[in-house]
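User: Okay, second chain of the day. Same drill as before: sequence in, structure tokens out.
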Amino acid sequence: MQNNKRSFRGGAPRNNPRRRNGGYSGGRRSSGGGKSGQLNKQTIHPSRFINRDTVAASTAADTYEPTHKFSDFALNPTIQRNLENIGFSSPSAIQDQTIPLVLEGKDLIGLANTGTGKTAAFLLPLLTHLAKHRHYFSILIMAPTRELAQQIDEEFRRFSAGMKLYSVLLVGGVNINPQLRGLQRRPHVVIGTPGRIKDHIDRGTLSLAGVNAFVLDEADRMLDMGFVNDIRRIAGLLPEERQTLCFSATFSAGIRAIAEDFMKQPETVSVKVNETNDHIYQDVVHYTDKDHKRELLINLLSDEEFEKVIVFGETKYGVQRLSDGVDKLGISSRAIHGNKSQGQRTRALDDFKTGKARVLFATDVAARGLDIPNVSHVINFDVPQTYDDYVHRIGRTGRGGKSGTALTFVEQRGMSSR
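Assistant: Same drill. Structure tokens below.
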């Protein structure tokens, strides 16, 4: 890593940010305290971004003792072998408590934080059912974003290796022709986002008449993103006799409505823990204007402690400009946002996962569902719109019971020079 601490404009290096009573601080102080150069939309008190009394990672990881091993579940033998090859032995809390219920064919509402293994919680038992009857188009899985849908498809392929079961991925932002060919091959599992699934229904290229299992993953996020009408239309086309699984981080009024309208006597399993993981160190970074803000970011990213970092920004343009700027300074980065094609986003995520890029700049399109291991830091370069968004952003670090650090940039006005 190149330890280059120049500002974007090529100025002299500033001091490294350092911890003070008011959070991370450092570099220059403006003489007047003027504007930051961007509209301050913060509605969350900065104190909610601070948690310096963290629980040890090992303690957090050991808070749940599963009552089963994966080998205890009545899963398909090939799936069991795949799990052994992957190295899965002990289920997470949501897996431990939901897999037996899904195997029994019950409708289910699963409430759990991000990064707790919800994908395996529904895929493993549903694939076990599918291995028995092997009907085409029998499982429909909907997710709010292209990235999460793609991640589910990747997990499906891992768990079903050697079973000759096939899926199709239906997401927007990519050429539709490969999806049409995939549908013509009569897949067993359909995975996609609500808008593109509806498009295929409207085209007559997707029939839901054979679906016997319907999964809504990150259902609260789909409702937040305005997909409620699409969800209702799609659910209304499904056979009445089916199993419905709804996974969410919150049990909102919208989720209750889904349960009442589309589910039959669902079991509810909640393994929610505190809103913000106790093992994530959280602090604020005070800045005085937009140049100072950028310089502090460069200083942080130039620190060797920041091994694998996701930086969240508010706008597509701002995120891309930040990524281009740090790249020029020798800090390898990628950006994902709504202006990127699906191929570009996939390559950016792969580069970040494999270490080709150390920093990933992202808008909130990446705030949910992405499972990227070993993220050391999350930086909120722009304050999130809601505290719920904050919780999901910082949940990209400290996954699987590991420790992590989250820093949020907060403008501090009227600071005099020292």
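Residues 118-133 form the longest helix (16 residues).

User: Thanks, on to the next one.
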